[in-house]
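Exercise 7.
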Amino acid sequence: MNLAIQILTAVIALFHVYILWLEMFAWTTRGVKVFGSKAFPTELFPKTKTLAANQGLYNGFLAAGLIWSFLIEDPVWSENVRLFFLSCVAVAGIYGGLTASRKILIVQALPALVTILLVIIR
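Solution. The predicted structure, written as tokens, is:
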């Protein structure tokens, strides 16, 4: 169970590092390919570059918190930090799923919620 929790936490952290990169550094190139015109018209990507970078920074904070949970030696504190940041990811995913795209519920919220559940039942 511990290994599954660690793997899921690492995958979620890496996903948020990818989103950081996408939104902060590749918004007008790769971002257009990932989100395309489904998100909004292509000509708005350059105009929203600063807004996307801001979102990317927040994703970076989520990743940093999850990575930090691996570096804490005290198992209770490590679990508490992990649960806090997984909860932040879940809340962000639920909000994004309700306001932006249902896909966010599956890609962001569900993995965090599953990992939270595994930590709690361990």
